[in-house]
UniProtKB/TrEMBL annotation:
UniProt cross-references to InterPro entries, sorted A to Z: Amidohydro-rel (IPR006680), DHOase (IPR004722), DHOase/Allantoinase_Hydrolase (IPR050138), DHOase_cat (IPR024403), Metal-dep_hydrolase_composite (IPR011059), Metal_Hydrolase (IPR032466)
Gene3D superfamilies in alphabetical order: Metal-dependent hydrolases, Urease, subunit C, domain 1
GO molecular function, one term: metal ion binding
Protein name per the record: Amidohydrolase family protein
PANTHER family: ALLANTOINASE
GO cellular-component term (any): cytoplasm
Domain of life (superkingdom): Bacteria
UniProt organism field: Rubellimicrobium rubrum
GO biological process: one example: purine nucleobase catabolic process
Length: 426
């Protein structure tokens, strides 16, 4: 089927442009890019009038937790896929921190089958770096890579044994595999639920210094330099860590970094009166850290913006702040929350979609994230200025633990296409 999407503003993150135009979709790919709709529309089986809205490459959300196997009551591939489609996310890159962990080809193949059956969007799994995510013995990286793993990570668990982590990086280097690390010093950050400062002291909560992130990042970058491995730091959220990242890139190390939308749009004051929906890993940072992370994303020092979608049920959040489970869902709120930066004049739309779509695609070796002829027809149509108040009970995720409940947001998804098929109509 040939589809024409016209009367839209095309957001091209590769060229860095916003231009009026139209796209022709055929056989799951972009077949033509036009300045406007042709006079005759007879050759198109479907014609979509975008109403002057923005059309961009579909979002590649890197670091999504889908709770299969083990905790399907929190999130399934079906509900995660529906939530992603409603949020303009066309590819979800899943984490291996399930129960059991995704650390064998058999578990990985089970996950891939369930995803293919149930999810309307693309699902690419990451596998555990060490067995059971325990940091003692590395997994069979070669077999897992052959089974479809796009990267290797222990999630938010730091591989504390430097020798084990170094060996894993060396092995991954030989295979060309990508390793994703969580950059925290475990000794300093263990048990902490807030970033240290006056506000944490007033709340009487255990806190961690931002230097814990810098120490963790410095170690991992040194090992990446030693081994020559490909490394991605999943969450760089503090001003203290950014100079180390800049030095590593200037040295030519094969390293990239990401940040979650929550750390770019919220700060530690949002915890307020112990609001557990704002308990995250790493914890929300002070305002100067948030500002530094926004500047790093706009400049390209931080490469990837993601939701770090972590579903938790009501029971695990209805606890004292220190005992509550960390994490927040974000598949549906990633785009409207990120558009706060656009409306605030902090970043342009092409730069935003470079971090949301193009950079994660490039780092993972995917053909998505571009608006060129031949690229996959994974697209999101959104109304940049449409205001709404988020009601968490209307979200498609099984879990409703969003810090944006009741927040005023601006920017609604009106259509999502995966391989040329419309999977969401808003």
């Amino acid at each position: 089927m040939t589809t024409l999407i016209h009367n839209v503003i095309l957001i091209d993150p590769e060229a860095g442009t916003e231009t009026p135009g139209a796209l022709v979709l055929r056989d799951g790919a972009i077949a033509e890019r036009l300045p406007a709709a042709p006079e005759s529309l007879e050759r198109f089986a479907e014609v979509v009038d975008g109403g002057g809205r923005h059309l961009a490459p579909g979002i590649v959300d890197w670091g999504v937790k889908v709770s299969e196997p083990g905790e399907r009551h929190k999130e399934s591939f079906r509900t995660a896929g529906l939530s992603a489609a409603a949020g303009g996310v066309t590819t979800i890159v899943t984490r291996p921190d399930t129960a059991p962990a995704i650390d064998t080809p058999e578990i990985l193949e089970f996950v891939a089958r369930r995803a293919a059956q149930d999810s309307p969007v693309r699902v690419l799994p990451m596998a555990a770096l060490t067995k059971g995510r325990e940091g003692r013995e590395m997994t069979e990286i070669a077999f897992l890579r052959d089974a479809g793993a796009v990267a290797f990570t222990d999630g938010d668990r730091v591989v504390e044994d430097t020798r084990v982590f170094g060996r894993a990086l060396t092995y991954a280097k030989g295979l060309g595999a990508l390793v994703v690390s969580h950059v925290q010093d475990p000794g300093l950050s263990r048990g902490a639920v807030m970033t240290s400062g006056k506000f944490a002291s007033l709340r009487g909560l255990p806190a961690v210094s931002p230097m814990a992130e810098r120490l963790g990042l410095e170690r991992d970058l040194a090992l990446a330099e030693m081994t020559g491995a490909r490394l991605h730091a999943d969450q760089v959220t503090t001003a203290a860590a950014l100079p180390a990242l800049a030095r590593a890139k200037a040295q030519g190390l094969d390293v990239t970094a990401g940040v979650s939308v929550h750390h770019l749009t919220l700060n530690d004051f949002d915890v307020g009166d112990y609001r557990t929906f704002f308990k995250l890993v790493p914890p929300l940072r002070q305002e100067e850290d948030r500002e530094a992370a926004v500047e790093a994303l706009a400049s390209g020092l931080i490469d990837v913006l993601c939701s770090m979608h972590t579903p938790q049920d009501e029971e695990s959040k209805r606890l004292p702040f220190e005992a509550a489970a960390p994490g927040a869902v974000g598949l549906e709120t990633l785009l409207p929350a990120a558009l706060r930066l656009v409306h605030g004049g902090r970043i342009g739309l092409p730069q935003l979609f470079r971090a949301l779509s193009l950079n994660p695609s490039r780092r993972l070796g995917l053909p998505t994230g571009r608006l060129v002829v031949g690229a996959p027809a994974d697209l999101v149509l959104f109304d940049l200025h449409a205001p709404f108040v988020l009601d968490r009970w209307k979200m498609r995720s099984k879990s409703k633990n969003t810090p944006f409940d009741g927040a005023r947001l601006q920017g609604r998804v009106r259509g999502t296409w995966v391989a040329g098929h419309r999977v969401w109509e808003g």
